[in-house]
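Dear colleague,

Thank you for sharing your sequence with our group. We've completed the structure prediction you requested, and as agreed, I am returning the results in plain text so they can be pasted directly into your records. Please verify that the sequence below matches your submission; if there's any discrepancy, let me know and we will rerun it promptly.
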Amino acid sequence: MKLFYNAKFYSMKHENDSFAAALVDNGIIKEIYNTIPELTDIEKIDLQNLFVYPGFIDTHTHSFEGGLYSMGANLEKVATLEDVFSILSETEPVSGKIFAFRFDERLVKEKRFPTASELDKIFPDIPVILRRVDGHSCVINSKAVQSIDWDIPLPGNFNGYLSKRENGKAANWFHRNFDDESILRIYQKAANIAVNRGHTTIHTMIGDGHSNTKHYEFIKNNLHRFPVEFILYPQITDVPKALEAGSPRIGGCVLADGSFGSHTAALSEPYSDEPGNYGSLYRSSKSWNNFIQNAHKNNLQVAVHCIGDAAISQILAIYEKAQKDNPKDLRHAIIHNELTTEDILDREKNAKVSVIMQPMFDRLWANPNGLYENRLGKERTLRTNRLASIYNRGILLTGSSDWYITEMNALKGIDAATRIHNKYERLSAYQAVEIYTKNAAALSFDEDQLGTLEVGRQADFVCLQDDIFTSGSIAEIKIAAVIKKGCIKIHNEGSSHE
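Please find the predicted structure tokens below.
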């Protein structure tokens, strides 16, 4: 047994509930103490006045892509296309391919994407993919064009830019053909990044969005290898395959629409900067109905990517019908849930829908004259990322990064949730921590194991040098240690053993 002591443990059962020490046996909290107990014949771990919370849970990541792209070129800080070309020229291939991510054409001097011919000058013989920051469009070079088996031939004047289905086709080709050793190395990279940012559990999608589960079974059989707990989503719409794999859930980033940045999120009113464009609903309601009703019938929790209000309404209507015809506690989820109305939020509450949201989207794109205002205008920008309106309705709200899209960093997400640009949609610090702990555990029906620190729960701790609830700069708090099932996974300055 181990005694973790000399810290302020926040249980997250309710606000201000804390204790001073925890006795852990076989990874489970056996007892908690308001004062440090006198115990003998146990291992004692002095946490040296740290602040301890349940391990953070990120409820939506692309961990394979995130681990893979972390070995490639991060373009989030480039100012010109020359910066892009310079970084790419120093990038090493991974399994014979070049990966670049987090490119935002709005932030470079030229205000455009690189072209296929420009990428060819650097890599004439190696396939290259450069993904936009939202993941919903990309640029590829000529070698990639020649290597991919296209359903429909690309136009003769193709310049490298892809969106919608072609973007997904290219990305899926780049993500294929890795051997088992490489797949494990990529997921290990993702797990290490997660634990170093204070996470003990992360949800991740595995699949191509249609019927290919890729390496779902392989990772499922190797979960014990990782320092964090992966909760897996077969990212498919093939219900029999999900059932065959023994998954309790299906979906993840199966797309009802695209993104604001790529003008492909489906809107009920047109884009402010493209008045004739309403975005795109990626599938018919009939197709979605067949999938979701079949999943609901077979007790599979469904999660669908919906950004625009038209896409949210499309999927919500099918969730509502499934729940009305056959009420179940499956906690079907809408991922992103960015642009909403009062009516949509009321319907989500009544249908007992869960929402998986990314506070960092607001921090990055809701600033004055930023992406949201450019695409949607000021009035609709106020209706994005409505965390407080969702939380106050009692809708199950969870926090995530959508990593690789934004950094997998719960402290930055918590900070962003307390500083939403629309001040009426801000969460308190306690509420913001809840969506990365207690609420996140409930999404996967793990509320009896994860998300709070109490007797009988897993001893999953994130130990911080400052108190989230009193800090003026949550995003800058240092992580001193991360403990999973009572075992220290990272240990920086701030704790010691006896």
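Summary note from our side: The CA atoms of residues 270 and 277 lie 5 Å apart.

Kind regards,
the structure core
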